[in-house]
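To the wet lab folks,

You asked to see what we're planning to order before we commit. Fair enough. Below is the target structure as C-alpha cells, and below that is the sequence we designed to fit it. If anything looks off to you, flag it before the synthesis order goes out.
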C-alpha cells in the first residue's frame, strides 16, 4: 500500500463500495470487481494490500456511512426526544427502500462475522452493535441513568434489527411496519376475529 492515500485509491474505494452495495459480499472476487470499477486486480492489490484488507476497509466504510446517517436522523429530534419516538425515526430511516442495499450489506457482514472462521469479517458484528447502541444511548434525554439508557437502547435495537431481518426475508413492508407500530393495548387479530364471529 502506498504510504499516503491517493486520489485514485479514494476513487476506487468509492467505486468498490458501490459495487458491494449492488452485489453483496458472498462470492466477492477481485476480477469482476476490478472490471466493474475500471481497473485491474493488480492495481487493487497494490492500492489495498490484499483482498482481505480491501474487504475490511469496505466494511469499515459501510459501518461509518450508516452510523453517520443514523446519527443525523437521531439528532433531528424535533419536539419529541423520547426513546419511542427516536426508535420510530430510526425504523423509518432504515426500513425505507432507499436504504435496503445498505441494510442488506450490513446483515450479510453481520452474519459472516459470526461464523467459525470469519476471516476479514471478524469483529464486524460486535463493532456495529456497539456503534448502533451508543447512538441510541446518547440520543436519550440528559439525566437518564446510564444502565437504564443502555438497557432501553438494547431492547429498542433488538426490535428494529429483528423487524429489519423480517423485512429483508419477506419483503412485506405493511405487515412489518404494523408490527413496529403495535402497542400492548392494541386488539389482537384473534380477538377481532372472535368479535366478528359472535356478531355474525
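Sequence we intend to order:
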Amino acid at each position: 500500500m502506498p504510504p499516503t492515500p491517493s486520489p485514485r485509491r479514494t476513487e476506487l474505494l468509492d467505486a468498490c463500495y458501490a459495487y458491494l452495495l449492488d452485489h453483496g459480499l458472498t462470492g466477492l472476487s477481485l476480477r469482476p470487481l476490478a472490471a466493474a470499477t475500471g481497473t485491474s486486480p493488480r492495481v487493487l492489490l497494490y492500492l489495498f494490500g490484499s483482498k482481505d484488507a480491501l474487504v475490511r476497509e469496505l466494511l469499515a466504510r459501510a459501518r461509518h456511512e450508516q452510523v453517520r446517517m443514523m446519527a443525523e436522523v437521531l439528532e433531528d429530534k424535533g419536539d419529541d426526544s423520547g426513546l419511542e419516538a427516536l426508535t420510530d425515526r430510526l425504523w423509518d430511516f432504515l426500513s425505507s427502500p432507499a436504504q435496503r442495499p445498505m441494510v442488506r450489506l450490513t446483515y450479510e457482514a453481520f452474519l459472516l462475522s459470526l461464523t467459525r472462521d470469519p476471516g476479514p469479517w471478524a469483529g464486524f458484528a460486535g463493532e456495529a452493535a456497539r456503534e448502533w447502541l451508543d447512538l441510541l444511548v446518547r440520543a436519550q434525554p440528559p439525566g437518564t441513568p446510564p444502565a437504564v439508557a443502555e438497557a432501553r437502547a438494547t431492547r429498542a435495537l433488538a426490535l428494529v434489527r429483528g423487524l429489519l431481518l423480517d423485512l429483508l426475508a419477506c419483503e412485506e413492508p405493511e405487515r412489518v411496519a404494523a408490527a413496529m407500530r403495535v402497542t400492548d393495548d392494541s386488539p389482537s387479530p384473534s380477538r377481532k376475529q372472535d368479535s366478528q364471529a359472535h356478531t355474525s
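Structural context that might help your review: The longest helix spans residues 51-75. Residues 48 and 175 are 43 Å apart (CA to CA).

Thanks,
Computational group
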